[in-house]
Design brief:
Layout (H helix, E strand, L loop, with lengths): L5 H32 L4 H11 L2 H12 L4 H11 L2 H10 L8 H9 L3 H8 L7 H28 L2 H25 L1 H19 L8 H19 L7 H6 L1
Helix pairs in contact: 1-3, 1-8, 1-9, 2-8, 3-4, 4-11, 5-7, 9-10, 10-11
Length: about 240
């Protein structure tokens, strides 16, 4: 594909960001149901989703809030669940022209999500920041609006309906973990281990007295650390890439 002008790159970003935004709206609506259980208002939910845009991070934060956790617990669980964005940011930095200003790089970094990263990293040649801006401009408000409407729905819908809708978020997590679990036994074992250990820790003496937010943090670091040591990710060397 030939290099696009700034205007056409922005419009393409809007076009590519629309289906992402629609998906975000559906997922964040379910996230809003969870937020309502934590006592989050629709306005606060909109603001937090607008600036966070991370389903796992927000879910972890809202869960800690619902469990009356501390600010430090919210900070740590958000840091851990969103750590992957640091790696995405490093990868994205290689897509920019050396002439791209720091301000433009930082603005792209602020808007990185799994999906935005996916379409941006696939841009041929150097990435035009305006392309990512376009995708961000349309997908971010839809994510935030979905959360806010989910909170509102949680306030007006019957309890049984709210309970049913809250299950949708767990379905999203299953959709995320099942495919990689089928491809990699190490991932599957880690997922199963997290279920089992989380259940055990909920009833084990002493450990059950620890807040759910802190238990989640400990288990996340422990399981991920053990998996990384026992089954590190294989990285192809440059010679392998050249031979492909």
């Amino acid at each position: 594909m030939s290099e696009k002008t700034t205007g056409s790159a922005f419009l393409k970003g809007l076009r590519d960001g629309l289906p992402i935004g629609l998906g975000y709206f559906a997922v964040s609506f379910s996230l809003g149901i969870i937020a309502k259980k934590g006592g989050i208002s629709a306005l606060l939910g909109f603001i937090t989703s607008f600036f966070t845009r991370a389903s796992a991070g927000e879910y972890g934060g809202y869960s800690v809030i619902a469990a009356s956790g501390s600010y430090m617990e919210i900070f740590v669980i958000s840091l851990i669940t969103n750590a992957r964005y640091l790696l995405m940011g490093c990868a994205m930095s290689q897509k920019f022209s050396p002439k791209t200003s720091l301000a433009k790089r930082l603005l792209v970094g602020v808007g990185i999500t799994d999906e935005i990263f996916g379409i941006s990293i696939a841009w041929p040649g150097y990435l035009k920041p305006v392309y990512t801006y376009g995708a961000m401009l349309i997908s971010t408000p839809m994510w935030a609006a979905g959360t806010a409407l989910g909170i509102v729905a949680g306030s007006v819908l019957p309890v049984k309906v709210v309970s049913a809708l809250s299950v949708a978020l767990y379905g999203m997590f299953l959709a995320i973990i099942v495919p990689p679990s089928k491809k990699d036994k190490a991932v599957a074992v880690s997922v199963v281990a997290s279920f089992i250990l989380s259940f055990i820790c909920s009833y084990a003496p002493v450990v059950k007295e620890i807040s759910s937010g802190t238990r989640t943090i400990i288990l996340t670091v422990l399981i991920a650390g053990v998996a990384a040591i026992l089954k590190p990710v294989e990285v192809k060397n440059e010679e392998d890439d050249e031979n492909e």
